[in-house]
Each structure stands twice: as structure tokens, then as C-alpha cells.
Specification:
The protein is of the alpha/beta class and 1000 residues long. It contains 38 helices and 42 strands.
């Protein structure tokens, strides 16, 4: 299928601004009028006025300079760009470049084609060209990196208030290949006008640049981009950048008094050249030494023509150019801004509607006033979020509906549900998670209730239950196709039985998470049935398409999610229409552009919360917003929607958590995690790293990636796991991989991994199955070699597999985040191929690691001394028990050490009271960690080995057994908690002892 479309290039702007409220509105309107599609504006200095002005433009993405931004900088700055990080607190240039780097990624993920970097005191001026014609022309000529000349404004009088609109005279730029190319007349004129030094005719040697958004583009300072192709200089006839150094005395004063004593360096280097720099430096010194007056003098002497100067000859000679149409090019603000209603109109309107609602639903005045008071602050916060998603009146209706749902839910809530003392429960060292399918684990709700003892025996006190809601008969993606969010699947039990189960779990101190499947419903959900029956209102709940052209346009940049099942948009024969079905044909994607969908889903979420669920796994969130011409993943609106849901959920149940299930690269995962968005996040990178390290016996990728991608905001935490109910997805950060292996292609990295776990031709110990194109299914034990070793009666192979399994769990339990055990892993359960006999399941290999639990058989395996099941079980229990005793395991902070060490993963976790050293050997051979290496990381002295319960001296080399690991603790009270440990006997296999973990 030919998917090439001729369309106008979509061009974005990135700019870093300070408190420029007076001019920013014009800057935005002017560029939008030219046809720029989006502006990424980084507000470097807080300014509420600027924020307010920009908030109404849906085309503007405003990013504030805060802790989150610093984190995003550090995520995006790899390789040589890391040098910008320490400079970022000192120099605006460093911040600008980091912002440019960030904007490259943001613009790319929005499907934009070009990015122009300019400053807020600059304008892009295309002369007579249209924006589209210019960029199309560049594309046709194969130019992807273009630098524009800078035309400096010539201010003609004092007292200019609106520089972009009042100044029309500009000096043309004559700088070519480092020399000025004035003709004889021009040169003569310049000699006559000593107030015009030649350097004023380039001011900046070059203006700013635009770049085509290829994957490989990077920045090269703030004036250039770096791409595969050379920079093309756009000369005389092309667009130019218009620049105002300072348009008025007030401008010079505002700018240089604010900048204060900035350094003589620029990007860490001395400011070279005598061009712009010397004016900057003079202005800085004037501000410091002489203040306002000195700056006013400087402005008059250096930037204004002497009084009485006749500019006509300068214009005639082509030294100057007059551009009188700048102001006229900018269309009025009303043409672009969303018709958002001001907060002081919206909030009272919503409040009145809510009061009426409450009174009409039987609430008395006092109760109504109480509840309403609790909404006011929340409304202030939600209004801008809502307005960015849905303009004008729509947002008022939506807010009213959302708050009605919230207030109703608050009135119905049973206080017993708020049993967790605070939101910190998820970060506690004592919290250990498990995940299971109710039917496969215990038959139904009642069955699970009877098995709670078992969970407690393992140490599980956080349980993620796979979907239990009503689902279509037959194929239903393990319940991820939901037919009704408020009814449970009859085969599992009634909703009351489910409630009873939740109460029982709560009584046993077990917090519960369930899925909030918000991306799609089953095709037999009432909304879907009504849509299929032709009800227009419900057709708006989904994404229907009538023509293939539009479908192809939407799919042009989409990477299919389940490619084996076809494209993300599929043709529905019964309806004769196209439908967005990201996962399976029977899972219809919801259309969040319709605010009614958001309101209805929020209603469902609050209903579920009131059942007594403590955390919600937001299923498949990168997919919830689609935008033509983009990958339709990780769009900015996804974050707004998650923020909205999370906010309302926490208004109802303050200690609840939202878990992001974003199985994407860490750069994107991190964007979902924020105090106001998801507070817990699936950590697919960790499991990808573990399995990669195991397959290569090389921990460098793991160390490198986890060193870069483990930090999260303090209030948030990871959900760390070895394996889960889904496939193994290789969600590495590709830029970080390239940084580590600059010479190697990514295909060379990924191919061996796939080959290893798919084990074609028996090349490895693993027994994995292909899932979709690049992914792997399989149980932890089978992937770690146990299945093959048992089959081949390979005693040593069994030993190695057990060690591998334990090693992976030991890392996950200690590395930070809330660990989650996929139930069955604790008994080293193998792949179960019986799914192949079930036609509903046979095409989805993930079922290979979703077996029915055979309690009798498992009991037998467990009681067989030395069996892999029994060994893994007892060791894991022991590890969990140790974790639950030591506060150092709480939270997620992590420092990866010795990142170049091939066999070993070494990491340190620190609090004011304790330090934990985590070491894992990912090779089948013994490995040594030299004392010297440790000393380089500041580690030495005496530690406590938490497993062995004895001291460990790190002033000498440390020897690790094949696939061995260490949890070492340094703190004064370590001894006391260790002495409390029960003596757990770890049975061994035959006469082989588990030398790597001699705990008795
Ligand atoms: C999530 C689930 C997965 C399911 C998909 C669609 O990724 O974990 O099992 O297939 O969403 O709901």
C-alpha cells in the first residue's frame, strides 16, 4: 500500500523565554499567522502574566522551569550533551540547548516535520514566500538543515513600546564566509557614519536554524542543528530572522538589570569575537556599575542613530531594508485562542449546577455546602487541564459532570475503605506485590478468599488482580475486553462476592490493584452495541472511519501494536466501516476527543474505587489519544487525561495510586510518572535489562540504562518485576544504546536477543515463544533455562537455572520500587503449552505463561526437598522476609556503580541511616569485584551480609559464585535485626549444596 502523502510540511518553533509578557502574545500570533503549527515555549523565569497569556493558545505547549524539567533534561541529554547539565544552573544558553533537545523529541512524537529555534526577541520573516512553499522547496531539494541570516533591527527613536510592531527598519546582513561583502558605495557610506560599525550588519554571524525532524538530528549550540547533512545557509532571497537587541531604554534596563552579573563564558567557553558579545558585556558592566542611567546612555550611544541622521541614502544603498508589513501579518488573538471562559465565570457556574444536583439528589443544605467547599480548590486546578482538552462550553459541561460523579461517589463511600494510613504505603519496604488471574489461581472470588493464607505465607501484601469484569464469551484478551465495568464475570462470582473478597484482603493487610481498562471496551459493551445499532451518540464514543484515505493518513506513522492481528485500524465487515482497534478486533478504542467518554469513564473509575480498590493500573495509556500524522502514541493529551482521572480519584480516595502501564521506551514512560499523574509506574526497562544481561552474561547495558533511567520524582515509585502476565518487550532507550555502542547497529543488538529467547536451533538455555514481531512469551523459569535442563536431565543445568531465577528476583526485590511477583514464579513454574489446544487462545502465545494452578501438584513439588520449586520458594520467602525487615529497601533511589564491569551489576542504595550494596553476577562463572573498584566508588569497611547474616569486609576483593548475588548493609542496627531472623533451612538438590547462599 502506498502510504506516501503530499502534504504541507508541519513546522514547529522552540523558544526559551523570560518574563516577556508584553511581546510574547504578538510573537505567538505572528508565527501562527505564518502557518507554524506548534510552539514549544519554555518559560525560563516564572511570570504569571506570560503563563496566563499563553494558556489559551492550544497551539502552544508551555513548559515551566521546574524540577520535572531538570529531570527531563537529564533524560534527554546523552553523550556529549551531558556537559550541559551542570551548566544549566548557570547559563541560559545551556538551558536553551537542553530545551531544544527536548523539543526535538516532543515535536517528533507529535508528527511534526520541521523545528525552528528562535528567541522571543526574534521573528521568522519569509519575505514573499509562504511557510509551506519554503519548506516544501527545501524538502524537494533534499535540504534538511537550514540556517537563516540575521537582520538586526534599527530602532529609530526612543520610547518604542512594541518593538515587533513599531520598528520597521532593519540592517541587512552582509556577512559571508566570515567576511563582509559590502560594495564600494556601501563601504563609503559606512565610513561616513561612524555610529554604524560593520559588525552591526551581522550582529549575529548567523540567525537561527530550522531542521527536518529526522531521528538523528541533534543540536549544535543554540544557533545550529547537527544532522547527517551539512547546514544549508539560506542567503539573500530566503527567509531571514529579524532580531531586536533592545528596542527601548526600558528594554535594555529590564534585560540587563535582570541578567545581572552573567559570566564572560558562553556555553562554558569564553565569549569569543567582538560582535554581539562586546555589546552584551558593555551592557552588563553598565548595569552593574552605573545602573539605569548608564544603560540609558549606552542605548542612545550605541543603538540609536545620532539625532538628525538622514537614513535615505543608507536605504538606497541597500544597507538597510524597510519591512513595514510585520505588524499587519499577525492575525488577531481571537483567531487562535480557545474560547476558554475565565475561571471567575466558570467556577460559579459549575458550583451552582452542583448545588442543584445535590439538592435534587436528597442532600441537605449543610451537607451540600460542605461538599461544595471541598471542590473549590480542586476546580481551580482542573479547569486549565480540562480546557486544554475541550474548549469553551464543553469544558464546563464536562467539569460539572465530573464533579457530580465525584460528589455522588463521596456520599456513597464507606469510610472503612480508607484504611491505608497515607499514600506512602506503596513505597514501603514492607510492601511486596503479587499478580494473578483469579480463575487460574483459585477458580473464583471465593476460592481466592480461601487462598489468602498462601499469599501471606509468601509475604504478599499488595495484590494486582487481573481483570475480573464481565467480558464476552470466547476470546476476550484475558478479560481486557470489558463488557461492563460494574459487573463481574459470572464465572468468578457476583459483585457482592468480589466486595467480600476485597474486605477479606483488607483485613489481611493486603492492598489491591485492578485494571482500569480505559483505552477500549469490548465490542459487546452497551456503548458498542448501541453504536453498532446506528445510534449517532454512541458512534461518537469510538473511532469510526468511512474512507480508506483517512485511515491511511492516520496510520501513516503508526507502528502496529499487534501486527500479527493486522493494523491498529481494522475494517469491520458487519458494520461496513473502519474502526480503531489497537489490540484485537473485538476491543474497540474509546474516543476521548468526545468529553462524554471521559465523563462516563470517570464515573466507572469512581465506582470501582468505592468497591475498595487501592490502586488502579491504567491499562495501555500511551494509546488513548490519536492524532493524524503521528505515531498515535504518547500524545500530550494522554497525560492530561491521566492527570484528570488521577486528580478525581485522589479527591475521592486520597491514598489511592494510579499505576501507569506504559510499555514504551523509558523516555516516554517517565512522562507518565508525576505527582499529579501516575504515581506508580510499570518498569519494563528493568525486566528487559535483566533478561538481556542474563542472555549475554554482560551487565553493561543493564548498568548503563538503569543508571540513566531509574530516577523518578520523590512522590512516585516504580513497579518492578521480573516477569508479568504479558510478553517480554525490549523497551530500551535506543539513544542510550547508541551511546554505549556507537559503532553497532541497533539491529545487531536486538537480533541476537530475539534469537536467544526464541531459541531457534537450540542456541540457548531459554524456552521462549515469539509474540508479535519482536517480543517474547514464556515463564520466568522456562526463560531462565529450567524447562530445558529438566527435560534433558541436566543436573548442572537445573542448578544454574535455579540460580538464575533467584538472581533475577533478588535484584528486583532490592533495586527499588514496589516489587511484584508474577504468581507461579515463586514455584519456578514452567511454560504450559496447553493453550494451543484452545482455539480462542492458540494465536496468543502469552497464554504459555498463564497456567491454571494445580494446588495438589504444587504442594507436592513444594514438599519435595531439593526440587527447584521448593528451593526457589524458600529462598524467595527468605528474601522477601529480609526486605520486609529493612527500611533501606523502601522507595526507589538507586546509584549504579562500576558500570563498565561486564559480569557484575553493582548498585548502591542510600538513606541517611543505611546503605545497601546490591551485587549480582550475571555469568555462569565465578566473578570478582576488586576492592580497588569498590574504593573508587567510596565503598569499603565492614558491611553486613543480609543473606549470610555475617560481616563482610569490603577492604578486600569480593568473590561471587556463578549467578550469585549479595545484599550488603551498612548500619549500626543491622546486627540486631539480623539476629532476629528465623533459621530457614534451604533444602538442596541431591548432594549439591547451594554454596552461593548458605543460609541455615
Ligand atoms: C495491556 C495488558 C495486555 C492487554 C492489553 C490490551 O497491555 O497488559 O494484557 O492485551 O493491555 O488491553
Amino acid at each position: 500500500m502506498n502510504q506516501a502523502f503530499t502534504r504541507q510540511p508541519q513546522v514547529a518553533i522552540v523558544t526559551t523565554i523570560a518574563d516577556v509578557a508584553s511581546s510574547i502574545d504578538f510573537f505567538v500570533r505572528y508565527h501562527l499567522s505564518l502557518g507554524f503549527k506548534r510552539l514549544f515555549i519554555f518559560l525560563d523565569v516564572p511570570c504569571t502574566q506570560t503563563q496566563a497569556l499563553l494558556a489559551d493558545y492550544p497551539q502552544v505547549t508551555l513548559i515551566l522551569r521546574d524540577e520535572l524539567l531538570s529531570q527531563r533534561w537529564s533524560d534527554v541529554a546523552s553523550g556529549e550533551y551531558r556537559r550541559l547539565l551542570p551548566l544549566s544552573s548557570l547559563e541560559v544558553m545551556a538551558r536553551q540547548e537542553l530545551n531544544m533537545l527536548l523539543a526535538l523529541g516532543m515535536a517528533r512524537s507529535e508528527g511534526l516535520d520541521w523545528l525552528l529555534h528562535i528567541d522571543s526577541d526574534e521573528l521568522f520573516y519569509p519575505h514573499d514566500l509562504t511557510l509551506g512553499a519554503h519548506f516544501l522547496d527545501l524538502e524537494r531539494r533534499g535540504i534538511g538543515n537550514v540556517s537563516y541570516l540575521n537582520y538586526e533591527a534599527q530602532v529609530e527613536r526612543e520610547g518604542v513600546e512594541h518593538p515587533f510592531q513599531e520598528v520597521s527598519l532593519f540592517k541587512r546582513n552582509f556577512f559571508r564566509n566570515n567576511i563582509w561583502v559590502f560594495n564600494a558605495t556601501q563601504r563609503e557610506l559606512l565610513q561616513q557614519h561612524s555610529w554604524l560599525p560593520p559588525q552591526f550588519f551581522n550582529f549575529y554571524q548567523n540567525g537561527k536554524s530550522a531542521v527536518r525532524l529526522d531521528k538523528t538530528v541533534q543540536t549544535n549550540g543554540v544557533h545550529f542543528f547537527k544532522s547527517a547533512k551539512d547546514v544549508h545557509f539560506c542567503l539573500n532571497r530566503g527567509p531571514v530572522i529579524l532580531h531586536f537587541t533592545c528596542a527601548s531604554v526600558a528594554d535594555v534596563q529590564q534585560k540587563y538589570l535582570r541578567l545581572g552579573n552573567f559570566p564572560d563564558t558562553w556555553n562554558g567557553l569564553p565569549r569569543t569575537g567582538k560582535l554581539i558579545s562586546d555589546f552584551h558585556i558593555q551592557a552588563r558592566d553598565a548595569a552593574l556599575l552605573g545602573g539605569d542611567l548608564a544603560l540609558a546612555r549606552l542605548f542612545r550611544e550605541r543603538l540609536l542613530p545620532p539625532p538628525g541622521t538622514d537614513l535615505a541614502p543608507l536605504l538606497d544603498a541597500g544597507l538597510f531594508i524597510r519591512l513595514p508589513d510585520i505588524a499587519a501579518r499577525a492575525k488577531p488573538r481571537e483567531q487562535f485562542v480557545q474560547q476558554t471562559l475565565p475561571a471567575d465565570t466558570v467556577i460559579p457556574r459549575v458550583m451552582i449546577a452542583l448545588r442543584q444536583h445535590m439538592i435534587s439528589t436528597g442532600c441537605n443544605e449543610a451537607e451540600a455546602s460542605n461538599l461544595l467547599a471541598s471542590c473549590r480548590d480542586s476546580l481551580q486546578l482542573m479547569l486549565p487541564v480540562c480546557a486544554r482538552l475541550y474548549p469553551g462550553e464543553q469544558s464546563i459541561h464536562l467539569l460539572t459532570r465530573c464533579y457530580q460523579a465525584l460528589l455522588d461517589a463521596k456520599r456513597q463511600r464507606d469510610p472503612a475503605l480508607d484504611w491505608l494510613p497515607d499514600a506512602n504505603w506503596a513505597a514501603s519496604h514492607s510492601r511486596v506485590g503479587g499478580c494473578l488471574y483469579i480463575d487460574r489461581f483459585a477458580g473464583n472470588f471465593q476460592g481466592l478468599q480461601r487462598r489468602v493464607e498462601y499469599l501471606s505465607r509468601v509475604g504478599i501484601n499488595f495484590l494486582y488482580l487481573m481483570p475480573m469484569f464481565k467480558r464476552p464469551p470466547g476470546a476476550n484478551d484475558g478479560g481486557f475486553a470489558i463488557s461492563d465495568y460494574r459487573e463481574t464475570a459470572p464465572e468468578l462470582g457476583s459483585i457482592d462476592e468480589f466486595r467480600a473478597l476485597l474486605t477479606h484482603l483488607r483485613q489481611h493487610g493486603i492492598a489491591v490493584a485492578v485494571d482500569f481498562v480505559l483505552n477500549h471496551t469490548a465490542d459487546d459493551h452497551p456503548w458498542a452495541l448501541r453504536a453498532a445499532a446506528g445510534e449517532a451518540e454512541f458512534q461518537e464514543y469510538y473511532h469510526f472511519f468511512d474512507d480508506e484515505g483517512t485511515v491511511r493518513e492516520y496510520l501513516s506513522k503508526v507502528i502496529d501494536t499487534f501486527p500479527d492481528q493486522g493494523h491498529d485500524i481494522t475494517y469491520n465487515n458487519d458494520l461496513g466501516r473502519w474502526l480503531w482497534t489497537t489490540f484485537n478486533r473485538f476491543q474497540w478504542d474509546l474516543n476521548y476527543e468526545n468529553p462524554a467518554v471521559l465523563a462516563a469513564m470517570l464515573d466507572n473509575l469512581l465506582f470501582l474505587s468505592n468497591l475498595g480498590i487501592d490502586a488502579f493500573r491504567f491499562d495501555a495509556i500511551p494509546h488513548i489519544w490519536k492524532r493524524k500524522g503521528t505515531p498515535c502514541k504518547n500524545q500530550p493529551e494522554c497525560h492530561l487525561i491521566v492527570e484528570l482521572f488521577s486528580h478525581f480519584l485522589r479527591q475521592l480516595a486520597p491514598h489511592s495510586h494510579v499505576i501507569s502501564e506504559a510499555i514504551v521506551a523509558p523516555e516516554q514512560v517517565k512522562q507518565f510518572v508525576h505527582r499529579d499523574r501516575a504515581s506508580l509506574a510499570y518498569r519494563p526497562l528493568l525486566s528487559a535489562c535483566l533478561w538481556q544481561a542474563l542472555s549475554t552474561a554482560d551487565t553493561r547495558v543493564m548498568s548503563h540504562q538503569l543508571a540513566r533511567w531509574s530516577a523518578l520524582p520523590a512522590e512516585c515509585n516504580w513497579l518492578s518485576y521480573v516477569n508479568c502476565h504479558d510478553d517480554l518487550h525490549w523497551t530500551f532507550s535506543d539513544p542510550s544504546l547508541r551511546e554505549l555502542f556507537p559503532e553497532q547497529s541497533l539491529a545487531d543488538f536486538y537480533q541476537p536477543l530475539l534469537a536467544f529467547y526464541r531459541n531457534k536451533g537450540d542456541v540457548s538455555f531459554a524456552r521462549g515463544l515469539p509474540f508479535q514481531q519482536y517480543r517474547i512469551s514464556g515463564s520466568t523459569a522456562s526463560l531462565a533455562g529450567l524447562e530445558k535442563a529438566l527435560e534433558q536431565h541436566d543436573v548442572e543445568g537445573v542448578e544454574r537455572s535455579v540460580r538464575r531465577i533467584v538472581l533475577l528476583h533478588a535484584i528486583v526485590l532490592a533495586i527499588g520500587g514496589l516489587p511484584m511477583l508474577y504468581m507461579g514464579d515463586e514455584l519456578a513454574s514452567l511454560n504450559d503449552y496447553s493453550y494451543r489446544q484452545d482455539p480462542e487462545l492458540a494465536t496468543d502465545s502469552r497464554w504459555v505463561h498463564r497456567p491454571y494452578k494445580d494446588w495438589a501438584l504444587d504442594e507436592q513439588r513444594l514438599s519435595t526437598v531439593g526440587s527447584p520449586a521448593s528451593r526457589v520458594f524458600h529462598i524467595l520467602r527468605r528474601l522477601i522476609a529480609i526486605r520486609q525487615q529493612q527500611p533501606i529497601f523502601a522507595g526507589h533511589q538507586l546509584r549504579v556503580l562500576c558500570t563498565e564491569h561486564v559480569p557484575l551489576f553493582v548498585a548502591l542504595r542510600e538513606t541517611a541511616q543505611q546503605r545497601l550494596l546490591l551485587i549480582g553476577n550475571f555469568t555462569p562463572d565465578s566473578a570478582r569485584l576488586s576492592q580497588q573498584q569498590l574504593r573508587l566508588s567510596g565503598i569499603g569497611g565492614q558491611w553486613q551480609d543480609l543473606l549470610l547474616g555475617c560481616p563482610c569486609h569490603l577492604d578486600q576483593d569480593l568473590q561471587l559464585e556463578p549467578y550469585g548475588f549479595r545484599w550488603l548493609l551498612s548500619q549500626s542496627t543491622a546486627e540486631s535485626s539480623l539476629t532476629k531472623r528465623g533459621s530457614v533451612h534451604i533444602p538442596t538438590h541431591g548432594d549439591r549444596s547451594i554454596t552461593f547462599m548458605p543460609i541455615t
